Structures are given as structure tokens and as C-alpha cells.
């Protein structure tokens, strides 16, 4: 017996696009349900470098995107301040870079309305002393860093406040089309192991790299999505406190972003076929380390803590060769299935970027309103999203200040990322079905140098003590967490992280003999 | 001191290899296991926390004031197997914080060691009366926050310079070449006996002992976060020690201050000065110097027996010089002298830490295992390489505490420690 | 004057230094920091899995592959070295029979084989039919009694029987006003007899019906009989369960061994990295120590190199994947890492079996020949075992340290 729901609109995909869309739709008074096959922000949104673009990156290559980024950067900084750190950004030319590109950059910035100002090399080096001392030009921009998960959770919580429902771990199994219109979205609640039927007027396919798979469920011709894989490496501490970009035409390995306690070097761009299997090839790791070395001498001796791969959800565009996804337009693409396939009530969205997620959502919901023949105004740009605590911009010192205040009264479970016991138990209480990874994305549990070595067992223990799970599930969750951390560890296993991995194994295998806990009947995967 | 100063320090930190060493931290807790302060109080969050852990969260304004409970003993860096410069990170973070938030008058006052010595010597009886007078101490505590029962130096009527001038010239001609003698402020003013013994031992061994005019090494200022003053002081001292114009070894009887010359001025103050590096390379603790002679077969060991059990404490800032425990090795060469190593991490005073009102009880708790051991095992004497630690041990146990060289001095028949048969 | 130089203050280095000093040789122990013993579980493993659970470790030692560190040593020498260490530390710190494994509960609730254990732990040995109460301390985050009890209760004992286990809590700050205390803080507090009494009373109040009370391994650091005091008060056996670092049982072993070797006259240089060496005619002449102020040359009669493996950086992988031994540039069993680690977290990681090979005396070899006539290796540096998986690190450390020391002593005599 399936559970039945009804809604005006079903949003498929809990990344930034889906989160923005569900918020926008709910704020315009639509009853909306967001479904995702796993947790929020687990796809592309959680697998980027953390950059909130100033637009600088695109002033030459893609002026339209540049202007959009500039205005959305300002809007998000206002409505989602706690998810954003105003780090500022620098574009720097290292020896060998085309020195004249800077002039084109400044001209492009003027033309696109992207705030930019050339500063002296000396001033750039004063601000960022670890920068390559040989840099020849430096341009200051308003880049910021952003926590994609905080962004998504903020938008989704806002949507919920407007009545939206959010169903995670609900993969879509079928989309029923009748009489030329979408009628029902069928999904499966994996945690309760039951089918869920959502009758609806409209479906917004915001599944990013998986959007092609979703359209296939409708029986319509597939939308050609080209996952453009990029790898990123998080370095153990902030080698810079400002976003540093290469002052060149956009290329691989040209961005270093200080986000939370780490700095992230990115990225590559390689065409893939399956967004569920994104490798982190050794050659690309080496490419990133070389790129880092050009920006920060000694980068290779700095500690890499974790690597990941994300895939850009680009919809195929015949104007560029399909194996060079970087030069596809970064603008969003909306496939109207009424126009394309004659099916009413279905839009598929591709492209776009996290910085413009709100604007994308506005366009998509506008398009839906057009098709429905309704006129409802978008209000997402003006209304601030409420976050717990104050509404100030994130600063790197926040958690240190918080723990300074409460460390005698609370326990610190994750020492690397200064996550307290009550932060963990509060979230566990609100989201009791979460895996440790689900909690990690919101709390940064296990994301520091030890990668869970000292905290994951504590977290599992607390979860049992709090009666959120039994010991068997806690042990399964712990195994899952360690397995998942390993995905991003083994490709960068060199330098200090080898020492750490050895220590972690001494603890989990050596002291705890974790591998000889009774084998789970079925490995915990969610 | 200002925001600018804080900014400058932070910029320096960001650009320093010391900060990069935080990458080596594997969170193993070894530094926490050895920290003498977090062992006795939860007010200090421990070296791993304030060091490599908190450093990842620092940019801009200081928010973790508990870093001030670090005593700068340096043990964390000594025990870290991974090469994290824990103490150095902590010191710089504290200096940044103090630059931002200001430094109490008290910290300035107690760091003026040379000034204090100069001012007190001519008036020693008066100074001692004032500092020894509990009412006056109480006023001082209220006024500037020096704990009323903390050990304060006792001034002597005669400075080392005065003694050098007045004593008869050495009768034996040097047979081994020159050494430059570094006595530290205490050796100059407060506690000249150790310095005199060291000079006489060196002369007995045939060295020509050159004692250049010398000021304070700045260690006390450094550990109170007064980096600018400390840098001025140590560089001035370096100039003075180089003044004789010889490449001879610099032999130090001031245990912890020798460490300032060897590494702390470079590692913590961030001074990259070739003259400092030169002096640092040449500096030897007196016991280290003698044990190098011993290992080379050049130290006479015709020691007279001293039938005594003596608790020996190696100060934290001597241990951090990474030379082992030469004083204990040296004392063990003296027949019938039973040396009991304290195995204590720190006596608590850590330079000037234990002088502060809000730190006094912590310092006493840190030192308690040491004091208990000294009280239990002493036969009238304890030994320790650093002046402030000797004052702390003596004040807290009532047991006379001498520099190890004073026992060597007696064993060579050059004098007799008062009260020892 | 040349001395025997031991590099490294882990179990292997401490054992080698002690053994040499006891033979009357002048020894200097040089270590960058405190050794890793304080991070360990504080028991002496010989061989726990091969790959199935081992009950008689010496039999399993006899059967190891030819490239295993135990292979050239043999069960008799392994047994003798473990017994030597046990007798050095005495029955207040280490008990057991090198021929028999104990199966002790862990802080995750798994059942871990080990060999020699501290007397405060042995009552925990898991036997079918036993009823446990697992007691946590609210202010100590590294031990969840629900997790331990829940996992024990679903795990068959090594003898095949079932185990009963229930959680309980006490709420007793080690220091007033501190909600987050480490195991070490508790151990120091429990060195105080009065606090230990209060602790024991609190445990007794929640122990309920059971055969054994399992407690986090925090029962005193310097005062070794605290577990007896607690057991007497609780009225039944108690057993310590080792925690993640800081590990109190490991620190006990470290401090005890350090005390023994200082008493034996070993010079201990701590906090200084050995950065270089001088060699002539195939022998090491000295090692260079980076002391404060500048390098110091320590003349070396022999060198026992016991710096650990990958966890200490003695074996290191650079950003290009090249594996190297840090100090002497010794030949390793593999020189490139990328093929030695893979995506399966649970699979053996061959990288961590890389190390030096030695001759029968424990000297690192290049091909068949010793690299230096007077350089010996001990402990984690030696290739051929993923120690944490096998539960073999301690036994290898002790056996190879004794092998190296005895070769030096025998050769010198």
C-alpha cells in the first residue's frame, strides 16, 4: 500500500537548484514537495570548491554569467549571510601568464559591472604572504566562500516554513504521464521501505547530472546531460585567507578557495558518462598539486586532507565540441518538454552554477507560471533566510569563539572542526534518521585533518547513548562513515596524511579491532 | 601595542614555517599527555587545542583568550614526535592576543629583570625588606597582580661585576683558550654564587673566562608576549656576547636563558639575524659544555666525593634545548653523590608565569609533584639549572637549591657549599 | 667516547636501550618526541589474527610467511623477549603467557585478541555465559557503555557462547566544572585515594547484577592498584577497557620503561630529530642531532634504529608517491605508493607492509648485505606486516629490539 500525497509541484533533486526552486515555489504559494534519492546537497552542490563567484572568472569568457554572478553574489550575501564568508578575492598573474590578460580582465569587469580593482603586487603579498612572490599583477574582486550545504539547508528550511515538504532518501521510480500531462511522481521511501505517490500538476526536474535519468522515467526521449567531472583537493589549513584565482582565461587548477578551515584547490573538467562513478585520477591530483605550487610555493609540502569529484550538470550544447565542457555556456538551460515533447507540466533544468542558484530558481518558477498561465511574483531576492543564531556573515573564528565560551560545559566530539556534543545531538534529534555523513555535511564532523580518526567512534557512541540508533546500526554507520572518508583519502595519500592514516588505523583496527565487530547482515548504506 | 602590531604579528605567523608545522599534527594527544598546566587546571584547554587545532581557526581578531594560560614551558614541542611547533604557535597566538587586547602593567614590570636588578643592588637590604615584607607584597599584588606568596628574587649586596673587579686575578695561566661567559641577569645581580662557581670551575679547567658586559636576554618579556622589547633585548645581548671578537664557545650558567640564545629568539620571536645564529651555534649550557669535554676524554674527573642524595630538576626550558640531561650526567660523575632526577615536567614558575596572581595557584599545583619529591628525598640540598626555578623550589619547599655547577665546584675542591660537610 | 645510540622512544627503542644498558653498555636514546606507547592499547600483542583469530600465538608465529618480521626470529625468541619484558615490568603492569592469547573487550564492543595484558584488564576476558555491566562516565566522551554493551551482547564469545551485557553510567567530574575530561585527567584524579573511593562508590551503586564490571581504562596512572580498590568496593571483578589516545595503560608502560632505562643509566635526549650521520668503511661513526642552536655529533659504536613506520614519518610518501626511509635512505621493499593503496577501505593496504628487510641479526640489508655493519633496525620500520590488522606490533617491536640488542651485546663480548 503506497502513501499518497498531493501537491501543485514536485521538485526532483535536493541540490542547490532544487532547494532554490522549492523555496521560490513555496514562497509564491504553490504547494511543493521536494524529493531526493539521498540527502540534501549530496551531489554537485556538495562537491565544488566553495567559491561564491564575484563574476571575475567570467568577465572575459562569459560576460553574461559575470554580470549575473556579481548581482547574485550581492543578493546571497544579504539573504544568506551565515552561509557566506566575505573573504574577498584576488586574481593574480604568475610569471609566464599573459600580462595583457589583466587589461582585458579590467575592461571586461567594467563592462559587466563586476567590481574589480588592480592593487600592487606588494600589497597582494602583504595580504597573502604565502603567494608566489613572483606574481606580476594582482586584481582585487569580491569573491567569497560559501558553504553549499548551509546554502541548501537554509533555502529548504525557508521553503518548509512556507509549507513545502522535503522527502530525502526518496528516489523517484516513475513519472506518470497521462493525456499529455504529468500526473503522478512515484518514489520509494527507502527508510520506511514503502512507495510514495505524489499527485501533482507540475514536475521540475532539478536533478543536475542525473536529470537525464529522470527524464527517462517519463518515457520521453532523454535530455542529453554531459557530466563534466572536476576534482578538488582540500588542504589542511588556510594557506590563504582570500580566494586566489589565476589571472588567465579560465583553465584547470586556477582557483584556491579558503573555505571554513581548509583551502580548496580546483578544478579539472573531464567529460564523464556516469555521474555515480566519478574517479579521482592520480594524474589529475598531480595536475592540481602542480597548479597549487604555481600559486603557493611549497604547496606540495602542505597537507592534503581530502579529495572529491563533482560533476557539472551541463546540458549538451551543439555550439561547442562535446569533449570540452568548460567552454559551454555556464548559463542555465531550461528544457520545456511541452515544446519539445508535447508533455505539459515538466521542465528539466541544466547548467547554471551555485552562485546563481537563486536566479535560476526564479527563471524556472517563472517558466512554470507561464505554462500554468498564472502570474505570481518572485520574492526570494528580498527576504532574508533565517538561520539559528545571528545573521552575520560566517567568519573563520566563529567556532573557536563558541568553544571558548562553552568548552567547560559541553564536550568537543570532533576536535579538528570543533563540533560540540550538543551541536551533534541537537541535529540528531531533529534528523534522527541521518547517517553520520548526513550530519557531517551540516556539522563538518570528521572533515578536519584526522578525517574521523578520533571523532567518528565518539559520534557513533553518542548516537547510541542518545537512543537515536542501536549499537548494531551505530556500528554500521561508523563503518559507512569510515568507508566514505576513504573514498576521498586514498587518492591523495601522501605526506602528512599518510601519518594520519596510519594513526587512524592504529586506533580503529589496532585498538578497537573494528574489522571484527560482527559483520552486518546487510552493510548499512543510508 | 595595537591592532597594527597584532596584524603585523599575524602576518608574520601566516608566512612562517612554524605555522606550516600545524600540518604535521595527527591529533595524537602526546602533547596533552605532557602539558603540566592542563594536567592541573581545566582553565587551559591544552597545547593541542590552542596550538595546531585552534590555529586553523585563526584569522583576524583573537577570540580564544584561554591561550593565555599557557606557561610557555615548551614541553609540547619537545614531546611532539611529529615536529609540530606547538609552543611556538601558542606563543605567537598569545602575543597577537596581547597586542590586540593590551598587556597588564604587571607583565611589563616583572619582565624588567635587569632594571629590577640594577635598581635593587645598591639598596639590597631595603629592597629585600620591601619584597620580603608581606604587607608590601600584598600592596604589590593588589596594584600589579604579582602573587603575594610568589618567589621574588633576593638581591645581593655585591654584583658579579663587583666580585670580578675585587677578586684577586686568577693565578693559573689559561691552558685551553678562551670561553665567553654568559651569566644572565640572575647571575649578575640576584644569585651570583652559581656564576662565580662556574667561572672558577672553568678557570680551574684551564679556560680563559671572558665576561663581557651583558644585559637581559628578553626571555621574560617574550613569554609575556612583549615581542618587540624581547627582540631588542636579545639582539643587544648578542652584540655584547660578540663584542670580545672571538669565535670561542659561549658558556651559559643561566639554564633557560641559554635556550633563548640557542633557539627561542629565532623560533618564537622570529628573529633571522646572522649574529644571533652565530651566538646560538656557539652557546653551550655549562653542564653540556663539560659533558662534551667528558665525552671527548678532556674532563678531569678527580672529583672529591660528596656523600649526599640530591634531587635534581631539569627545567622545562633546559629540556627543550634537546641536549638530553647533561647536568644529571655530570653530577653522576661525582663519587657518592646520588642524583635523583625529578622527572617533573615543570616547577610551575616557567619564567614569570607563577608570579602572576591569577596563575599562582596553577603554578603551585604544577610544581607540587616536584616539591613533594624534593621534600621527601632531599638531604639539605636540591639542584636545578635555572634561577627562577631554583627560587620556586626553594620558596615552595624550604630546601636550599643550587645550580649543579656549585656541586661540581665543591667536588673539584674549589669551595664548599654552606651546610655541606 | 662512542656510545650505543638508540633512535626512537617507542616500545622497540625503549626495549633496545634498556637491554643494552643492562648489559653494561653506554647508551644514548635519542627521540624526536615521546614514543607512541602512550597511544597504544597498553597490552603486548604477539599475533592476534593470521588471518583468523589466533588462540595460541606462538604456534601462529611458527607458521608466518617467510617475508614476515617474525619469520627469521622464531617462536622461542619471540616468547623469550615477551617474557623478558613482562618480567622487567613486573606483575603489577604486565601478566600473561606468551603462548596464550587473551580475548578482551574493546571500547567499540568488539572482542580483541592480545597476549600479555595489565592485571587491571584480565578479568574482562570474554567467556561465554558471562554477564557484564559496562559503566561509562558522563564527563568522559571516549566510552559509550551502550555501544560497548550493545555490541558485546550481539557478539558470540570466542568459545562460541553468548554474552550478556548492560550499560550503566556514573556522573562524577574528575575536576569541578569540567564536562569534557580526558581519560588521563581521570587517571590522575584516581591516583588520589579519596577520589578513587568516591569513584568506586559510584560504580558500586550502578553495577547491579553481573559477573564483571567493565570500566574505561582510566584507573590510575601512577598508583597501579586502583583497580583492586574499585573491585573491592564494588564486590566483584572489574576490568579496564582501553580507550583511544590518550591511552592510560599505554602511558603506564611508557613511563615505567622510561624509568627503568633512566635508572639503568641511559642518557635520554628528547625533542631532537636525528638529521644525519657520518659513515666510513661501511660503519656508522656518528649520528647528527638537531639540538637547539645547532647540530651535535654523537659518536656511535652501534645504532639501533627504531623510529617507527609510516605513523612517525620515518617511512614517508612524498607528493609524487615516492616511498623513502627518512634518515639513512635505506632500501625498502617498495619505492612507489600508488599501486599499494586502493579504494577498498577494508582490504589490506600493502603500503603499510613496506619497510626494510634485515639480516638474521636485524641489520637492514641491501640485497643480502648489511647496509652498515653496526646499524640495526627494530620495530615498525621492518617490512612484512600490517601490524594493526594482525595485532602483532608490540611483539614484533620487542622481539626485534631484543634481537638487535643481543646481537650488539654478543658481538661486543
From TrEMBL, chain B:
PROSITE patterns: 4FE4S_FER_1, 4FE4S_FER_2. GO terms for biological process: anaerobic respiration. GO terms for cellular component: glycerol-3-phosphate dehydrogenase (FAD) complex; membrane. Residues 18-45, 59-90 form the 4Fe-4S ferredoxin-type domain. It comes from the Bacteria. The keyword Iron-sulfur applies. Keywords: 4Fe-4S, Iron, Iron-sulfur, Metal-binding, Repeat. One of its GO terms (molecular function) is 4 iron, 4 sulfur cluster binding. It holds the Pfam family Fer4_8. PANTHER family: ANAEROBIC GLYCEROL-3-PHOSPHATE DEHYDROGENASE SUBUNIT C, GLYCOLATE OXIDASE IRON-SULFUR SUBUNIT. This is Anaerobic glycerol-3-phosphate dehydrogenase subunit C. It comes from Propioniciclava tarda.
UniProtKB/TrEMBL annotation, chain C:
The keyword Thylakoid does not apply. Its EC number is 1.1.5.3. Keywords: Flavoprotein, FMN, Oxidoreductase. SUPFAM superfamilies: FAD/NAD(P)-binding domain (SSF51905). The keyword Lyase does not apply. GO terms for cellular component: glycerol-3-phosphate dehydrogenase (FAD) complex. Residues 5-395 form the FAD-dependent oxidoreductase 2 FAD-binding domain. One of its GO terms (molecular function) is glycerol-3-phosphate dehydrogenase (quinone) activity. It comes from the Bacteria. This is Glycerol-3-phosphate dehydrogenase subunit GlpB. It comes from Propioniciclava tarda.
Amino acid at each position: 500500500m503506497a502513501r499518497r500525497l498531493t501537491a501543485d509541484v514536485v521538485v526532483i533533486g535536493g541540490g542547490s537548484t532544487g532547494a532554490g526552486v522549492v523555496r521560490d515555489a513555496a514562497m509564491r504559494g504553490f504547494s511543493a514537495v521536494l524529493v531526493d534519492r539521498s540527502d540534501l546537497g549530496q551531489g554537485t552542490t556538495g562537491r565544488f570548491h566553495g567559491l561564491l563567484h564575484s563574476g571575475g572568472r567570467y568577465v572575459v569568457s562569459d560576460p553574461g554569467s559575470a554580470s549575473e554572478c556579481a548581482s547574485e553574489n550581492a543578493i546571497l550575501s544579504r539573504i544568506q549571510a551565515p552561509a557566506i564568508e566575505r573573504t574577498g578575492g584576488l586574481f593574480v598573474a604568475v610569471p609566464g601568464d599573459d600580462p595583457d590578460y589583466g587589461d582585458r580582465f579590467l575592461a571586461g569587469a567594467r563592462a559587466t559591472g563586476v567590481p574589480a580593482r588592480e592593487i600592487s603586487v606588494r600589497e597582494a603579498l602583504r595580504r597573502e604572504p604565502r603567494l608566489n612572490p613572483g606574481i606580476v599583477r594582482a586584481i582585487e574582486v569580491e569573491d567569497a566562500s560559501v558553504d553549499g550545504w548551509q546554502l541548501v539547508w537554509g533555502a529548504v528550511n525557508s521553503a518548509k516554513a512556507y509549507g513545502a515538504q522535503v522527502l530525502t532518501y526518496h528516489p523517484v521510480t516513475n513519472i506518470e504521464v497521462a493525456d499529455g500531462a504529468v500526473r503522478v511522481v512515484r518514489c520509494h521511501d527507502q527508510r520506511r521501505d514503502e512507495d510514495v505517490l505524489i499527485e501533482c500538476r507540475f514536475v521540475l526536474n532539478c536533478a543536475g547530472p542525473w536529470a537525464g535519468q529522470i527524464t527517462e522515467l517519463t518515457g520521453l526521449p532523454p535530455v542529453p546531460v554531459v557530466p563534466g567531472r572536476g576534482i578538488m583537493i582540500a588542504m589542511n589549513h588556510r594557506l590563504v585567507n582570500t580566494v586566489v584565482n589565476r589571472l588567465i582565461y579560465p583553465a584547470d587548477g586556477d582557483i584556491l578557495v579558503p573555505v571554513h578551515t581548509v583551502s580548496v584547490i580546483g578544478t579539472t573538467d573531464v567529460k564523464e558518462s556516469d555521474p555515480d562513478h566519478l574517479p579521482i585520477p592520480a594524474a589529475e591530483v598531480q595536475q592540481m598539486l602542480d597548479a597549487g605550487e604555481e600559486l603557493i610555493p611549497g604547496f606540495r609540502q602542505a597537507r592534503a586532507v581530502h579529495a572529491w569529484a563533482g560533476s557539472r550538470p551541463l546540458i549538451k550544447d551543439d555550439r561547442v565540441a562535446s569533449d570540452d565542457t568548460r567552454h559551454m555556456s555556464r548559463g542555465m538551460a531550461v528544457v520545456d518538454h511541452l515544446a519539445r515533447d508535447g508533455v505539459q507540466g515538466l521542465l528539466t533544468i541544466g547548467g547554471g552554477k551555485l552562485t546563481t542558484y537563486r536566479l535560476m530558481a526564479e527563471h524556472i518558477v517563472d517558466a512554470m507560471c507561464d505554462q500554468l498561465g498564472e502570474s505570481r511574483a518572485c520574492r526570494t531576492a528580498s527576504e532574508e533566510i533565517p538561520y539559528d543564531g545571528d545573521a552575520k556573515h560566517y567568519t573563520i573564528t566563529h567556532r573557536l569563539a563558541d568553544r571558548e565560551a562553552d568548552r567547560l560545559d559541553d564536550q568537543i566530539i570532533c576536535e579538528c572542526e570543533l563540533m560540540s556534543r550538543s551541536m551533534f545531538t541537537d541535529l540528531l534529534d531533529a534528523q534522527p534518521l541521518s547517517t553520520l555523513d548526513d550530519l557531517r555535511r551540516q556539522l563538518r564532523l570528521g572533515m578536519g585533518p584526522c578525517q574521523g580518526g578520533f571523532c567518528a567512534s565518539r559520534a557513533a557512541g553518542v548516537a547510541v547513548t542518545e537512543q537515536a540508533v542501536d549499537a548494531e546500526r551505530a556500528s554500521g554507520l561508523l563503518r559507512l562513515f569510515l568507508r566514505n572518508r576513504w573514498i576521498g583519502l586514498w587518492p591523495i595519500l601522501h605526506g602528512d596524511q599518510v601519518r594520519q592514516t596510519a594513526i587512524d588505523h592504529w586506533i580503529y583496527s589496532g585498538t578497537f579491532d573494528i574489522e571484527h565487530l560482527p559483520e552486518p547482515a546487510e552493510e548499512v548504506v543510508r | 601595542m595595537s591592532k597594527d602590531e597584532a596584524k603585523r604579528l599575524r602576518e608574520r605567523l601566516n608566512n612562517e614555517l612554524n605555522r606550516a608545522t600545524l600540518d604535521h599534527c595527527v591529533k595524537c594527544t602526546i602533547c596533552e599527555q605532557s602539558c603540566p598546566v592542563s594536567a592541573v587546571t581545566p582553565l587551559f584547554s591544552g597545547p593541542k587545542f590552542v596550538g595546531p587545532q585552534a590555529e586553523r581557526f585563526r584569522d583576524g581578531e583573537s577570540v580564544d583568550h584561554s591561550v593565555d594560560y599557557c606557561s610557555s614551558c615548551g614541553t609540547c614541542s619537545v614531546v611532539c614526535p611529529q615536529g609540530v611547533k606547538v609552543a611556538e604557535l601558542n606563543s605567537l597566538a598569545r602575543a597577537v592576543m596581547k597586542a590586540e587586547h593590551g598587556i597588564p602593567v604587571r607583565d611589563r614590570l616583572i619582565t624588567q629583570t635587569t632594571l629590577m636588578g640594577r635598581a635593587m643592588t645598591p639598596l639590597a637590604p631595603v629592597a629585600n625588606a620591601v619584597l620580603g615584607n608581606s604587607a608590601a607584597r600584598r600592596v604589590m599584588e593588589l596594584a600589579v597582580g604579582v602573587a603575594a606568596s610568589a618567589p621574588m628574587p633576593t638581591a645581593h649586596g655585591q654584583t658579579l661585576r663587583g666580585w670580578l673587579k675585587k677578586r684577586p686575578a686568577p693565578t693559573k695561566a689559561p691552558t685551553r683558550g678562551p670561553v665567553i661567559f654568559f651569566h644572565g641577569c640572575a647571575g649578575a645581580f640576584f644569585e651570583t654564587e652559581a656564576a662565580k662557581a662556574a667561572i672558577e670551575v672553568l678557570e680551574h679547567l684551564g679556560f680563559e673566562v671572558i665576561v663581557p658586559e651583558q644585559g637581559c636576554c628578553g626571555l621574560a618579556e617574550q613569554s609575556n608576549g612583549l615581542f618587540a622589547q624581547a627582540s631588542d633585548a636579545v639582539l643587544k645581548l648578542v652584540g655584547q656576547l660578540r663584542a670580545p671578537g672571538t669565535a670561542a664557545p659561549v658558556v651559559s650558567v643561566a639554564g633557560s636563558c641559554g635556550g633563548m640564545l640557542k633557539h627561542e629568539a629565532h623560533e618564537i620571536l622570529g628573529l633571522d639575524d646572522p649574529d644571533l645564529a652565530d651566538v646560538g651555534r656557539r652557546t653551550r649550557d655549562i653542564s653540556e659544555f663539560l659533558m662534551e669535554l667528558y665525552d671527548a676524554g678532556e674532563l678531569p674527573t678527580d672529583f672529591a666525593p660528596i656523600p649526599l642524595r640530591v634531587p635534581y630538576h631539569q627545567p622545562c626550558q633546559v629540556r627543550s634545548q634537546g641536549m638530553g640531561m647533561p647536568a644529571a650526567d655530570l653530577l653522576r660523575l661525582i663519587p657518592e653523590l646520588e642524583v635523583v632526577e625529578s622527572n617533573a615536567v615543570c616547577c610551575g614558575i616557567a619564567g614569570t608565569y607563577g608570579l602572576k596572581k591569577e596563575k599562582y595557584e596553577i603554578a603551585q599545583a604544577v610544581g607540587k609533584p616536584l616539591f613533594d619529591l624534593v621534600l621527601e628525598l632531599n638531604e639539605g640540598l636540591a639542584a636545578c639549572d635555572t634561577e627562577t626555578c631554583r627560587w620556586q623550589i626553594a620558596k615552595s619547599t624550604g630546601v636550599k637549591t643550587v645550580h649543579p655547577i656549585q656541586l661540581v665546584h665543591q667536588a673539584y675542591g674549589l669551595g664548599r657549599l654552606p651546610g655541606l660537610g | 667516547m662512542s656510545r650505543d645510540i638508540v633512535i626512537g622512544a617507542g616500545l622497540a627503542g625503549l626495549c633496545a636501550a634498556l637491554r643494552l644498558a643492562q648489559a653494561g653498555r653506554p647508551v644514548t636514546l635519542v627521540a624526536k618526541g615521546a614514543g607512541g606507547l602512550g597511544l597504544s592499547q597498553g597490552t603486548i600483542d604477539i599475533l592476534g589474527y593470521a588471518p583468523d583469530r589466533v588462540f595460541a600465538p606462538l604456534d601462529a608465529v611458527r607458521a608466518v610467511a617467510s617475508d614476515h618480521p617474525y619469520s627469521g626470529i622464531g617462536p622461542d625468541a619471540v616468547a623469550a623477549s615477551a617474557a623478558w619484558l613482562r618480567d622487567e615490568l613486573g606483575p603489577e603492569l604486565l601478566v600473561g603467557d606468551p603462548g596464550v592469547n587473551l580475548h578482551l573487550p574493546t571500547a567499540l564492543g568488539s572482542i580483541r585478541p592480545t597476549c600479555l595484558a595489565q592485571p587491571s584488564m584480565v578479568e574482562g576476558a570474554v567467556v561465554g555465559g558471562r554477564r557484564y555491566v559496562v559503566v561509562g562516565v558522563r564527563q568522559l566522551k571516549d566510552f559509550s557503555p551502550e555501544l560497548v554493551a550493545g555490541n558485546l551482547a550481539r557478539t558470540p564469545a570466542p568459545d562460541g557462547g553468548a554474552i550478556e551485557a548492560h550499560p550503566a553510567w556514573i556522573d562524577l567530574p574528575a575536576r569541578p566544572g569540567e564536562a569534557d575530561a580526558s581519560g588521563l585527567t581521570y587517571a590522575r584524579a584516581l591516583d588520589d585515594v579519596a577520589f578513587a573511593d568516591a569513584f568506586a562508590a559510584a560504580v558500586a551503586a550502578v553495577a547491579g547484577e553481573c559477573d564483571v564490571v567493565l570500566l574505561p581504562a582510566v584507573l590510575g596512572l601512577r598508583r597501579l592498584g586502583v583497580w583492586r580498590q574499585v573491585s573491592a568496593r564494588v564486590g566483584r571483578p572489574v576490568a579496564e577497557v582501553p580507550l583511544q589516545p590518550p591511552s592510560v595503560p599505554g602511558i603506564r608502560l611508557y613511563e615505567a620503561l622510561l624509568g627503568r632505562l633512566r635508572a639503568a643509566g641511559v642518557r635520554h635526549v628528547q625533542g631532537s630529530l636525528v638529521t644525519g650521520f657520518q659513515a666510513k668503511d661501511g660503519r656508522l661513526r656518528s649520528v647528527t642531532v638537531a639540538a637547539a642552536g645547532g647540530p651535535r655529533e654523537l659518536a656511535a659504536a652501534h645504532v639501533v634504529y627504531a623510529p617507527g613506520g609510516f605513523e612517525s614519518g620515518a617511512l614517508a610518501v612524498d607528493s609524487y608517491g615516492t616511498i623513502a626511509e627518512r634518515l639513512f635512505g635505506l632500501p625498502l621493499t617498495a619505492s612507489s605508493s600508488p599501486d599499494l593503496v586502493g579504494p577498498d577501505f577494508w582490504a589490506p593496504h600493502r603500503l603499510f607492509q613496506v619497510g626494510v628487510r634485515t639480516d638474521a641479526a636485524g641489520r637492514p640489508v641491501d640485497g643480502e648485505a648489511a647496509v652498515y655493519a653496526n646499524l640495526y633496525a627494530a620495530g615498525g620500520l621492518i617490512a612484512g606486516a600490517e601490524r594493526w590488522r594482525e595485532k602483532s606490533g608490540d611483539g614484533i617491536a620487542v622481539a626485534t629490539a631484543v634481537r638487535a640488542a643481543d646481537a650488539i651485546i654478543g658481538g661486543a663480548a
